[in-house]
Write a structure and sequence with these properties.
By secondary structure, this protein is an alpha+beta fold. The chain contains six helices and six strands. The strands form two sheets. A four-stranded mixed β-sheet has the order 3-4-6-5, with helices on one face. Strands 1-2 form a two-stranded antiparallel sheet.
Length: 215
């Protein structure tokens, strides 16, 4: 018999133990039924069950189920698509998952495996720069595919901005649009019909002249 404060009360009749628990408003719980004699303890059984459920819930919450996520690339993946897929790699590693990078070759592309290796090195550089993970398996060919596996680093959960060259690309693409609008406005002011192709060509010529004057 064990008291609520952990004190060992020794062997006593069941009726006496039950009466002792009822006197202080608690329950008599058999904690070791296989012992001889069985071991009982005075406790708040409802509170005990709640604490057990809470411990189980915390254990499940802290358990990280790591999965292997695959992200596929091509040897000639364009900048926008590359940034989009690298962002997926960042998210998967931040969530504690391993990432399998697959470079898919078609036809004679398999003869240029160095292009796939170059893509893998760019991905590895991004992962290292942002301390997201480590390469667990270096790039290697399996049939017509090249594979590389990256494992996450502990504590890698953070917001990573996309590479700057993707933003610069958008800024450069916006300049001719503004020039074309200006050329179109000038044509309308002169009362003539506006040729969209001519307006676009004029905008490009203006951009070239501006770059020449700046240099």
């Amino acid at each position: 018999m064990i008291a609520a404060n952990g004190e060992k009360l020794g062997v006593m009749p069941t009726d006496q133990a039950v009466a002792l628990a009822e006197d202080i408003g608690l329950d008599l719980v058999e904690v070791s039924p296989k012992a001889r004699p069985p071991v009982c303890r005075i406790m708040d059984y409802g509170k005990y069950k709640y604490q057990q459920r809470k411990k189980t819930s915390e254990a499940k919450k802290n358990a990280v189920s790591s999965l292997l996520k695959e992200v596929k690339f091509r040897p000639k993946t364009d900048v926008h698509d590359f940034n989009f897929k690298v962002d997926h790699i960042r998210r998967f590693l931040s969530e504690g998952h391993k990432v399998k990078v697959t470079i898919r070759f078609r036809g004679r592309e398999v003869m240029h495996a160095d292009r796939g290796t170059a893509v893998c090195k760019k991905i590895e550089k991004f992962v290292n720069e942002h301390a997201l993970g480590n390469v667990e398996q270096m790039p290697r060919m399996e049939g017509k595919d090249m594979h590389m596996i990256i494992a996450p680093k502990p504590g890698a959960r953070r917001q990573i901005k996309r590479p700057e060259h993707s933003v610069k690309g958008k800024a450069k693409a916006a300049a001719p649009i503004a020039g074309a609008s200006a050329a179109a406005g000038a044509g309308a002011a002169n009362g003539g019909a506006v040729d969209p192709v001519a307006a676009a060509n004029e905008a490009v010529d203006a951009a070239v002249r501006d770059e020449a004057s700046d240099s």
